[in-house]
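Priority: medium. Attachment 1 of 2:
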């Protein structure tokens, strides 16, 4: 397998599109420290697309453990996974990380937060998000 960041990430994405998540994870492991946030996001998004919620959460925790920076793509994907669990505690933990990196108002993250809280049965948090806290703002895409 190829270990350059650009090509390696493209290979992760290819395997994910084919549903071959074991090969996608193997590619990321081969990339080692060269793997970027984009590489990790491709893996997490692949797990989410292939309805492998547990594996998406595990990859997210590994990403954090490797000190790879999380961004709006990371959070919107992992919040989609939270919507599938549904676990209010997990959703709140992810939300706290979103607040820490100050991307709550990002359109995709805000929408994913609202969806995750709704699926977790926390309609109060969902309503609060729609009304003010993390309502997506067009200027923060």
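Attachment 2 of 2:
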């Amino acid at each position: 397998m190829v270990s350059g960041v650009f090509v390696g990430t493209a290979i992760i994405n290819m395997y994910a599109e084919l549903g071959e998540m074991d090969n996608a994870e193997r590619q990321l492991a081969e990339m080692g420290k060269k793997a970027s946030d984009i590489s990790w996001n491709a893996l997490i998004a692949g797990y989410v697309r292939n309805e492998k919620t547990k594996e998406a959460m595990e990859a997210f925790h590994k990403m954090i453990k490797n000190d790879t920076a999380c961004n709006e793509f990371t959070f919107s994907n992992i919040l989609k996974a939270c919507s599938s669990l549904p676990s209010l505690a997990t959703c709140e933990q992810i939300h706290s990380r979103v607040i820490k990196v100050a991307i709550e108002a990002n359109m995709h993250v805000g929408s994913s937060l609202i969806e995750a809280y709704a699926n977790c049965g926390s309609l109060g948090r969902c309503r609060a998000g729609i009304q003010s806290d993390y309502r997506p703002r067009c200027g923060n895409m």
